Structure formats: structure tokens, C-alpha cells
């Protein structure tokens, strides 16, 4: 049902969408974006692959275990919270650090970025896990 | 030191049993490090803020009692994990086994070193959950699953009662820190005088009794014997079941010295001791005998901690604490011996055994030492603590006076006689007498040193503590008892202290126990007859009735609440919405339609709104799924355009992406279903739906019209706080995201947990469906 055009465009677009989703994730703190949106965007990219190329074909390339993604994501988010406790702050207390780097200027390093990455992984992992399970059900 | 414990908990990813044993050894060393300070009467503490606004801290506290438990947990943990190396078949899922064991050990250590009540509750329930996983370790055996479920329902359910009790304590004192309460005499006086004293005490004791299998809650422990034997040795004799005893000891200074305490704790202990000791007779499973003996031994400790009066609040504390240590040594040893026997004979039925002393001489000696210690035979450690039990029973009876002067010591002696009888049964049934070769394998041999050494070490401890009690008493019991009584305790324990009343009681116990043992078979047969005649007369059948009844009730409930088709849910939701919004709107808004309305709508908005209305009409009217879905997506995309127009890019992106995904899922699903609506909508249904939907839309319209007229003015807008603080506090310019990951980070964490669970839920649903096909 998918045409050559769809396949070619998908191949070209998916990496761009993924990069865009990562940039959304990292930009989230100051501009529109964030872990949730980035995760959903990543999911869309992968589901595009699934739809255009089919689940079997994707599986034959590499069997992704999305459940590991959300496990890792949840771990990262939780550890971010506990990490604050290690510095004797309350759970999930965030902090940031401004660093001056050559060429890039002032950059804020945020502890919440890790939390966001965790959210991103959980969103991606669980949505794709559901997708794949439903797809395999036939 | 305590700060490292959670770190040790995280070292769970392991492969081999020796690694697990090493972790336990590290824990033991860490705990032992606190020993010198504790012996000198000091305490070790460490804390982290956790939920500061609720005064819940992650704080750890080590006193004599905690350290004694820590030593028992990690020390026996080492032996169990090394023993398991040989006991567990190499084909088993060992990684899972040791992971559960270590998780259990971590939560147990966390619990005994908790100084905060809420934290104690969390670790407490963690031990219940890990115990559940360990009992159900052989998950394809129905009995394991049954036992695991039972233990979880009883112990974790009891934990909820305990939490309620802690909350009452928190209400009375204003703090959840147990140590603060303990160190503050006026607070304890306040609790004892408070009207919530009795409810709090009862609730906490229910939790403790459920965990320690006391009273009617004992039923879970025999079924827990489905766990692998090392697990039973660890959890169901030496450590977890003692958590309830630990709790009783921990709160002893707060509640003891009152009649309620004596009646509840002491009374519960005495009754359970007698009942469990008696019921042990009809057990034929060697682990079943040990389970009932554990229940009755725990009841000894309960009874002793319960001995209290206004003048002498802690009569049995030292005896109970000493017995706690001794019980951990001899009972773990007995379980390990039972494990060896079951391993070699491939059965756990004691009626099929006998005469094993020839094949398994070393096991026989070790088992006999432990069982005799349980029976209270000198010079083993069980004898010492049982003497102390009798002494404190005499003292308690003397203080109460009246008929209790004789009743309490008599109950103690009777409990001891039961203990003596089933201890002898354990030795005699397995090792002595004739060999019944038709049931047993031809060639049996002693286990390897890996399996033999842990019980041998415990048996050696049993003898050592019995003959030279002073070291154990000085380094472990005295600090622990001081920790409970909050004063310096000096003890003098020795094997021989003259011909006392307690010694006389011991002699009576032995004679009575021997007499009981002579009639052992007859008593067991009588019990069997009674239980066969009145099968409904047990707590077990009550439990089964409740649990099975609950599943039937919930099915009936679900049929009403979750009928299946989508429309009842929607109707219910919309009606509730009407109730919750229409009523307040009518009450707050003076006029339904405000007079000053701004009806100037820019052209873009008007066009967008027109399109949205058109698309929504389309969803309602179109007769084919594909068309309807496209119309729904069109609504979604148009709404996201509105968001862009109103300068809410975050919302717009989210809406756009979610809409895309939803459309994809819809399209995937409709491939499987017929392309057109089949069902005919009757006139009455149509009328009902029209009525509800128009009522809802009119409400929303009025709500929105009034919203611009200041209907929400009683509440101040929250957004100013976030606008002011998002950059200085969280360092981010995108307020929406800052709220998500920082100000409301807890919410987000909860949401992603829900997302993970939803993913697993979908997986299980689809998986179980394809399995049942």
C-alpha cells in the first residue's frame, strides 16, 4: 500500500524529525518544547517508519525493546529527584549552574534537563511499546 | 553508617549467590561498625529532607534495638545466601531470586533503622511486597501464588492499619519522628493522656500482629511455607515476621505501662502461644510444624513485651529481647535442616520419614541441638530465655494478683509444654525410629559443606550463647533492652542460679511435654476429626470466603460501573459535569447572559471558528468511520491553529502532535472494523443524547460568557506567581515547561509512572488475550 515516494520521503524525513525532537527536548526550558512534546514527536517519527515500512520489516532490521526505554527514563527521572536529596535538598529540588564556554557564550546547566530527558524516554518508550504490542497482536 | 544503607540497597544487580552473600557481609560490617557506640549507650543518626512541608524526613537512627535487628538480618542473610548457592537448582532464575532476597534485606534494614514513622511504613510495606515476590517465586505453582497473595493481603493490609495508627500519633504529637517522641518525656505523657491513645494503639497493634502472624492473622504464615526453604528460614522465622515484634518493642516506651497495652499485646501473645502450640500437633509437613512453632515462639515474645503494669512498665522486655535473638538462631537453623532433609528425601511429609540419623548423622546432630534449644533444654540458649520467660510470668502474675497469680504462669508452662512436644516430634519423626524405605530414596548422603556449614554455625551459636551468655548479653541484649526501656539496663544471666521457681516450672514443662508427646498421635487425630466436622470454623475458611466473595462482588460491581459500551461513560461524565458546573454557575452568576458583551471578532478567528463548527458537525453527521475520523482530526488541527493564533505555541505543538498520533492510531484500528456504522439509533436515544449535549453546550456557553465578566474573581490567578518566579527560581523562560518539570515535578513524575503502567497494562491485556486464543 505504500509507494516508493512515501518510502523515499520517510527515509529522508525521519532523521530530521528525530533531530528536531531532540532539539525540542533541549530547548524546552526557554522556548516551546520539552520532554513530553519531544517524546511525542519522536514517537510520530518512529510510527511513521512502522506504518510505511511495516512492523515485520522494521523488526527484521533490529528488534527494539521500547520497554527498556521507559524503564531507563523512569530511572533517570527518579534519580534526578533522589540526586537532589544527596545534596541535602528536598526531593526533586532543582538547581542550575551558569557556565561560560568559549564560542557558545553563557550556558545554563539545569538539573531539570535530566528530568526532562527521563520524561522524553518514558513518553517515547511507553507509546511505542503500546504501538508495537498492538501491531503484533494480529 | 546508616546513610550507606540505601546505597547498599541499590547494589542489586547481581548474578551469583556469593555476590549476594558478600553484600550481606558488607551490611553486617556496616552495622557492626555502629556496635561500639551503641554498647556505650550512644545512638547513630543521619537524615535527609524528603517532604519537608509535611515534616517527613528520610532519617535513620540506630540504637541498641536497631543494631541487634541489623545484626540478625544481615548475619542470617549471609548464611542464607551462601546456603542458597547449593540449595537452589542452577536451572532456576537465580538472578531474580537473589535480587528479591537482597531487596528484602535492604528494606528490612531500612525499616529497623528508620526513625520516621512514615518512612518505617514505606519500608514495612516493601518487606511485605518482597516477601510476596519470594513466596510466589515458583510462579507456576498454584499453591505458591495462593500463599503469596494471602501473605500480601494480610501483612500489607495490616500495614495500612499501622499507617492509620501512625497518623493518629502524628495528630497527637505533631511529629512523625518516633525518636523525637521517644526522647521527649512530656510527649509520651501527652500521648498516654490523649483520647486518641486507644485507637492509635489498637491500629498499630493490628499492623504488628498481622506482620508477626499473631491472633487471627496467623493464617498467612503456614501458606507462606510454599516459598523456597532458605526464604522461609530468612523471612518467615528469623527476620520479617519479627518486624511486628520489632514494632512492639519500638513503641514500647510510648504505650506500655497501661492496662490497654497488657490486655492487647500480652493477651494476644498468650492466646496465640497456646493456640499455635496446640495446632502444631496435626501438621505433617515439616515446614508446617516449623511455621506453627514460629507463630507460638513469636507469641512468647509478644506476651513478654506485653507484661506491664503502672509501676513496672517493662517486666518482660529483657527476656523477650533475649528470646528474640535466641529464636533467630535456633529457628533459622531448624529451617535449614528441614531444607536439607526435604532436599535429600524429596518429600516434606514427616509421616514418610524416620530413621534418617544413619544416613544424615551431621544433619541429625545439628537439628537435634536446635530443636532441643527450642524445647528449652539446658545448657542451650533456648533454656535461658525460657527461664526468663517463666520468671517474668511469675512476676506479672504476682503483680496482677487474684486468679492471674496462677493463671499466667500456668499458661506459660502449658505453652512451654506444647513447644517441648512439637520440638521432640521434629527430631523423633525425622531422625529417630525406623526407616520407611518404601517412601524414601535408596541412597541418601550428607549435603556438601556449603549447605551444612550455615546450620552448623547457627547450632554452634546456640550452644555458645547457652554456655557463655555473658558476651551476647553484654554486647547485644543490654544495649537493645536499654534502647527499648530508655534507661541503662544491666543483666546477669547464667545457666545456674539456684533452685528457683522458674526451674521448677521448667521441670513441670518437661514432664507435661513428655506426657503430651506420648498422646501426640491421638491429639492430632482428634484435631483432624474436629476440623473435618466443622470445616467452616477456622480463620482460613473465613479468609477464603472473604477473598472469593470479594472477587464475585467486584465482578458484580464492575458490571454496573463499567458496562462496556462507550456511551454510558460519556453520559455519566457529562451529567457529573453538568452537576458540578451548571449549578455553581447559576449560583454565582447574577445574570445568565451578561449585558456588556464584546462581540467584535477578528476575521481570522471568525473563519477558524466557522471551520471548527463545520468540522464538528461533520463528525456527528458523516456515516463512514474514515470520514468521521478525518473530521475529528480536522477539529483537532483547527484548535491547534487557534492556539497558535492566541500565542500559545506549547499548547499548539502538543495539540498538533497528539492529534497526529491519535489519527494514526484511529486509522490503524479502523482497518479491522466495518467501514460504516451498523447500529440504528432509535428516536428515544437520539432525543436523550440531544438533550444532554445541548444542556452541556449551553452551560459551557454561559460559563464562558461569564468568565470574561469576572466570574472567577474570588480566586486570584496563580499565573502571576509563576511569571515572577520561573526565571529566578528555576532558571527557565518557558513557563509551561518550568511548571511541568520543576514547580510541579512531582505531578510529572506521577504521570510518567502512570504512562509506564498504562504501557504494561496494554501489553498484559493484549498478551493475555492472545494467550487465551
UniProtKB/TrEMBL annotation, chain A:
Provide the alphabetized UniProt keywords. Cell membrane, Membrane, Transmembrane, Transmembrane helix
**Record field: transmembrane:** 12-29, 35-57, 69-89, 109-131
| Subcellular localization | Cell membrane
Record flagged with keyword Membrane: yes
Lipoprotein recorded as keyword: no
Q: What are the residue boundaries of the Na+/H+ antiporter MnhB subunit-related protein domain, all occurrences included?
A: 5-128
What membrane topology does the annotation report for this chain? Multi-pass membrane protein
Q: Name one GO cellular component term.
A: plasma membrane
Q: Which domain of life is it from?
A: Archaea
UniProt xrefs under InterPro entries: CPA3_antiporter_subunitB (IPR050622), MnhB (IPR007182)
- Entry-linked PANTHER family: NA(+)/H(+) ANTIPORTER SUBUNIT B (PTHR33932), NA(+)_H(+) ANTIPORTER SUBUNIT B (PTHR33932:SF4)
According to UniProt, the name of this protein is: Monovalent cation/H+ antiporter subunit B
Provide the species name: Methanolobus chelungpuianus
Q: What are the top taxonomic ranks of the organism?
A: Archaea, Methanobacteriati, Methanobacteriota, Stenosarchaea group, Methanomicrobia
Amino acid at each position: 500500500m505504500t509507494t516508493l515516494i512515501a518510502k523515499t520521503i520517510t527515509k529522508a524525513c525521519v532523521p530530521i524529525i528525530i533531530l528536531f525532537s531532540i532539539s525540542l527536548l533541549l530547548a524546552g526550558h526557554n522556548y516551546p518544547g520539552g520532554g513530553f512534546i519531544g517524546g511525542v514527536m519522536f514517537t510520530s517519527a518512529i510510527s511513521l517508519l512502522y506504518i510505511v515500512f511495516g512492523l515485520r520489516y522494521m523488526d527484521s532490521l533490529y528488534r527494539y525493546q521500547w520497554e527498556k526505554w521507559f524503564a531507563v527514563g523512569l530511572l533517570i527521572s527518579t534519580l534526578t529527584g533522589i540526586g537532589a536529596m544527596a545534596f541535602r535538598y528536598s526531593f526533586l529540588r532543582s538547581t542550575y549552574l551558569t557556565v561560560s564556554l568559549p564560542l557558545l557564550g553563557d550556558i545554563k546547566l539545569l538539573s531539570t534537563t535530566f528530568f526532562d530527558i527521563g520524561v522524553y524516554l518514558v513518553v517515547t518508550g511507553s507509546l511505542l511499546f503500546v504501538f508495537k504490542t498492538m501491531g503484533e497482536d494480529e | 553508617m546508616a546513610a550507606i544503607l540505601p546505597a547498599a540497597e541499590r547494589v542489586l544487580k547481581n548474578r551469583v549467590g556469593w555476590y549476594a552473600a558478600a553484600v550481606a557481609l558488607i551490611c553486617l560490617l556496616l552495622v557492626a561498625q555502629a556496635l561500639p557506640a551503641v554498647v556505650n549507650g550512644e545512638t547513630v543518626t543521619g537524615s535527609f529532607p524528603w517532604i519537608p512541608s509535611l515534616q517527613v524526613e528520610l532519617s535513620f537512627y540506630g540504637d541498641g534495638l536497631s543494631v541487634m535487628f541489623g545484626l540478625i538480618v544481615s548475619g542470617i542473610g549471609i548464611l542464607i545466601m551462601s546456603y542458597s548457592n547449593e540449595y537452589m537448582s542452577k536451572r532456576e532464575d537465580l538472578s531474580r531470586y537473589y535480587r528479591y532476597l537482597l531487596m528484602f534485606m535492604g528494606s528490612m534494614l531500612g525499616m529497623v533503622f528508620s526513625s520516621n514513622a512514615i518512612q518505617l511504613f514505606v519500608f514495612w510495606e516493601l518487606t511485605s511486597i518482597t516477601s510476596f515476590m519470594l513466596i510466589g517465586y515458583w510462579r507456576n505453582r498454584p499453591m505458591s501464588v495462593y500463599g503469596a497473595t494471602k501473605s500480601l493481603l494480610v501483612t500489607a493490609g495490616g500495614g495500612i492499619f499501622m499507617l492509620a495508627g501512625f497518623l493518629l500519633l502524628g495528630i497527637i504529637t505533631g511529629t512523625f519522628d518516633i525518636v523525637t517522641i521517644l526522647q521527649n518525656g512530656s510527649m509520651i505523657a501527652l500521648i498516654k493522656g490523649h483520647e486518641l491513645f486507644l485507637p492509635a494503639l489498637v491500629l498499630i497493634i493490628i499492623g504488628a500482629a498481622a506482620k508477626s502472624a499473631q491472633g487471627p492473622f496467623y493464617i498467612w504464615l503456614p501458606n507462606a511455607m510454599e516459598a523456597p526453604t532458605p526464604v522461609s528460614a530468612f523471612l518467615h522465622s528469623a527476620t520479617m515476621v519479627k518486624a511486628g515484634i520489632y514494632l512492639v518493642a519500638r513503641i514500647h516506651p510510648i504505650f506500655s505501662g497501661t492496662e490497654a497495652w497488657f490486655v492487647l499485646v500480652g493477651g494476644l501473645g498468650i492466646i496465640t502461644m497456646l493456640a499455635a502450640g496446640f495446632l502444631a500437633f496435626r501438621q505433617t509437613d515439616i515446614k508446617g510444624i516449623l511455621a506453627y512453632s514460629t507463630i507460638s515462639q513469636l507469641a512468647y515474645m509478644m506476651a513478654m513485651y506485653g507484661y506491664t503494669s503502672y509501676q513496672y512498665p517493662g517486666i518482660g522486655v529483657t527476656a523477650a529481647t533475649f528470646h528474640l535473638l535466641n529464636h533467630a538462631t535456633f529457628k533459622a537453623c531448624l529451617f535449614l535442616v528441614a531444607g536439607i532433609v526435604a532436599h535429600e528425601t524429596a518429600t516434606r511429609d514427616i509421616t514418610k520419614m524416620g530413621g534418617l540419623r544413619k544416613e544424615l548423622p551431621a544433619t541429625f546432630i545439628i537439628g537435634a541441638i536446635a530443636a532441643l534449644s527450642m524445647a528449652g533444654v539446658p545448657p542451650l540458649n533456648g533454656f535461658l530465655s525460657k527461664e526468663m520467660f517463666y520468671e517474668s510470668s511469675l512476676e506479672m502474675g504476682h503483680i496482677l494478683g487474684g486468679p492471674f497469680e496462677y493463671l499466667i504462669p500456668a499458661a506459660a508452662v502449658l505453652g512451654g509444654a506444647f513447644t517441648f512436644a512439637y520440638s521432640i516430634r521434629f527430631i523423633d519423626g525425622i531422625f529417630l525410629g525406623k526407616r520407611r524405605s518404601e517412601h524414601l530414596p535408596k541412597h541418601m548422603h550428607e549435603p556438601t559443606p556449603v549447605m551444612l556449614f550455615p546450620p552448623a554455625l547457627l547450632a554452634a551459636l546456640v550452644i555458645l550463647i547457652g554456655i557463655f551468655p555473658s558476651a551476647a548479653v553484654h554486647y547485644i541484649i543490654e544495649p537493645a533492652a536499654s534502647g527499648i526501656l530508655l534507661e541503662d539496663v544491666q543483666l546477669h544471666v547464667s545457666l545456674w542460679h539456684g533452685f528457683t521457681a522458674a526451674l521448677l516450672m521448667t521441670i513441670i514443662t518437661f514432664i507435661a511435654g513428655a506426657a503430651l508427646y506420648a498422646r501426640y498421635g491421638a491429639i492430632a487425630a482428634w484435631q483432624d476429626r474436629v476440623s473435618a466436622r466443622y470445616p467452616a470454623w477456622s480463620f482460613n475458611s473465613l479468609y477464603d470466603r472473604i477473598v472469593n466473595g470479594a472477587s464475585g462482588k467486584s465482578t458484580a460491581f464492575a458490571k454496573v460501573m463499567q458496562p462496556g459500551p462507550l456511551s454510558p461513560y460519556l453520559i455519566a461524565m457529562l451529567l457529573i459535569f453538568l452537576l458540578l458546573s451548571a449549578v455553581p454557575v447559576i449560583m454565582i452568576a447574577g445574570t445568565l447572559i451578561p449585558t456588556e458583551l464584546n462581540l467584535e471578532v477578528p476575521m481570522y478567528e471568525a473563519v477558524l471558528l466557522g471551520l471548527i463548527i463545520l468540522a464538528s458537525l461533520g463528525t456527528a453527521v458523516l456515516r463512514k468511520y474514515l470520514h468521521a475520523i478525518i473530521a475529528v482530526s480536522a477539529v483537532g488541527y483547527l484548535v491547534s491553529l487557534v492556539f497558535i493564533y492566541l500565542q500559545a505555541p506549547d499548547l499548539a505543538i502538543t495539540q498538533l502532535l497528539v492529534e497526529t498520533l491519535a489519527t494514526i492510531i484511529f486509522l490503524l484500528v479502523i482497518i479491522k472494523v466495518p467501514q460504516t456504522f451498523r447500529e440504528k439509533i432509535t428516536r428515544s436515544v437520539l432525543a436523550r443524547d440531544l438533550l444532554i449535549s445541548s444542556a452541556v453546550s449551553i452551560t459551557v456557553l454561559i460559563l464562558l460568557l461569564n468568565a470574561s465578566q469576572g466570574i472567577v474573581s474570588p480566586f486570584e490567578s496563580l499565573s502571576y506567581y509563576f511569571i515572577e518566579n520561573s526565571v529566578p527560581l528555576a532558571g527557565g523562560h518557558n513557563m509551561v515547561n518550568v511548571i511541568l518539570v520543576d514547580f510541579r515535578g512531582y505531578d510529572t513524575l506521577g504521570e510518567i509512572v502512570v504512562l509506564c503502567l498504562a504501557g504494561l497494562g496494554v501489553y498484559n491485556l493484549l498478551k493475555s488475550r492472545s494467550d487465551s486464543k
